[in-house]
Amino acid sequence: MQQLTDLYTQWCGSEPADVSKLPGAGSNRQYYRITSHDGTTVVGCIGTSRDENHAFVYLCRHFANLQLPVPRILAVSGDELRYLQTDLGSMSLFDAIRGGREAGGRYTVEEQQLLKRTIRQLPSIQLRGADGLDFSNCYPQAEFDVNSVLFDLNYFKYCFLKATNIDFHELKLEADFRLMAKDLTQERSDAFLYRDFQARNIMLVDGKPYFIDFQGGRRGPYYYDLASFLWQASAKYPHKLRRELVYEYYNALKQYVEVPRPHHFVARLSLFVLFRILQVLGAYGFRGYFERKQHFITSIPPAITNLRELIDSTSFPYPHLMEVLNQLCGLPQFKQIEVAARRSDGYKTTDRNPYTPHPQDGPATFSKYDGSGPLVVSIYSFSFRKGIPEDKSGNGGGYVFDCRSTHNPGRYEPYKQLTGLDEPVIRFLENDGEILTFLDSVYRLADAHVRRYIQRGFTSLMFSFGCTGGQHRSVYSAQHLAQHIHDRFGIEVRVCHREQGINFVLDAQQQAEEVKRV
Prior knowledge:
By secondary structure, the protein is an alpha+beta fold. The chain has 17 helices and 14 strands. The protein has helices spanning about 1-10, 50-65, 95, 100, 110-130, 145-160, 170-185, 225-230, 240-255, 260-290, 295-315, 320-330, 330-335, 425-430, 435-455, 475-490, 515; strands at about 20, 30-35, 40-45, 75, 80-85, 190-195, 200-205, 210, 220, 375-385, 400, 460-465, 490-495, 500-505. The strands form four sheets. It has a five-stranded antiparallel sheet with strand order 1-2-3-5-4, sandwiched between helices. A five-stranded mixed sheet has the order 11-12-10-13-14, covered by helices on one side. A two-stranded antiparallel ribbon has the order 6-9. Strand 1 (about 20) and strand 2 form a beta hairpin. Helix 5 runs parallel beside helix 9 and helix 6 crosses helix 10. The radius of gyration is 28 Å and the shape is globular.
C-alpha cells in the first residue's frame, strides 16, 4: 500500500489527502480511490501478477491511442505491480440496470437503451482495437485456441459436472469436447476477444460506456464476447431483448468487417453460447462448491435455465455431451427451476406515418383566442367508473383516451396495491409492449396538436386518460405524455392523477428547441 502511495506522490507531486479501498471483484487485484487535496481522484491498482498488469497497461494504452473509451494510464511502477489510472466513477452498467435484473428481466425502455448503446460499442474495441495490436503482450496467452477451449471444458467437467455425481463416459465426453474445440476454432479471426465482457466491466460516464478489466483478452472470434454478455446468468435478459441486442451488434459489426449471412452468424453464436455456459458453470462450481462463495452458488440456477433453454431450442452434433447436459438439467436440485415462459413478440411500436397535412384553401380567418398564449397543457388520469374529468377552462375537454384495450397489470396480485407510477408496474407495461404502441399514436397526435396550438397562441389544451380503476394504465399514460410534452416543447404541463389524489406542475422552460422551431 505504501508503495502505491509513493507512486501517486511521485506522479502528483504531493501526498494524497485520502485513500479508500474499492470493493473487490473476482481477481486478486486490489483497487483504491486516491483523492488529492483539491478533490481530484484517480484509481490505483495493486496486482499480484506482473504479466497480468503488463497486459492491462499495454492494452489500455493501445486502446487509448485509438481513441477508444477506456481509462487512461497515468503512472506505472518499475516492477509493473502497481499503476494509476483515470477514475471513471462508481456507476457500472451492472448497477444502472439493477432494477430490471431484480425485476426478473423486465427492463425499462431506458435500461434497454443503455444495453443497446453498450452492445453497439463492442465491435469497435474488438475490431478497431485489434488494429496494430501486438497480441504477444496478452495474458495468459495470445490466442483463443484448441488448448484453451479444452482447458475450459475440462474445468467444467472437474469443477462442476463431477460435483453433481452424474455418470458419464469419460472417453466419449472427451471425444465430444475435442470435436467442439475444433468447431469453435475452425474460423480464424484477428479480432480482439475481450473475454470478460460483462455489465460489471462497463462503467458509465455521463451515460457513455467505458471499458475496463480486459487484461485477459487475446486474439479470437468476436462471437465469444457477444455470448458472454447476453447470456450472463444473472442478467435474465428476456428472449425478445436478447434478439434485439444481437441485431444491434450485427449491424454495428458491419461497419468494421464483412459479416457472415444471418443464419450462419446465429449458428456460430449458438455454439459459443453453449461453450460460454459450460465455461461459467465450471467457474461457478469452483468458486461456489469448493470456495463456498454464496454469490456463485446463487448464479448456478439461472445458468442452468440458460442451458436448458439453449439445448431445447438448438441441435448440437455432440451426442454424449447432449445426453449428459440433459441429465444435468433434469437433476432434482435444478428441475425445480422453471424455464421462463417464452413470450411471444406481441405488439411492437411501429412507425405509422400520419396523413400529410393539406394547405388551407383561400384566406384564413382567425379565432379571438389566437395570439393569447402561452399554452398550458392539463393532463388527467381517471377511472371511467367515476366519470370523465371536467374541463375547467370551458374549452370542451380536449382529448379523452381509453386505455382499457391494453394489458391490465391490475389483474395480477403483485400489482394490485401499486400504481402506474411504481417501477414494477412500469416494467410490466413496458415489457408487455401494448401500452407503448398505444402511446406511440398518442404522442404523434399530441405533438401535432401542441405544435399548432403554440403557433396560434392558444392558452389551454387538455388530455385525459381513463381506465377501469384510474390506477395503473391511465396513470402510466398520463405521466408519460406529460413528460413527453414537457421535454419536447418546454411548456407548462399540469398533471392530475385524480383517483390517486396527486397533483403537480411541470414548469415552463422556454428555451426548449421544439418551441423555437415552431
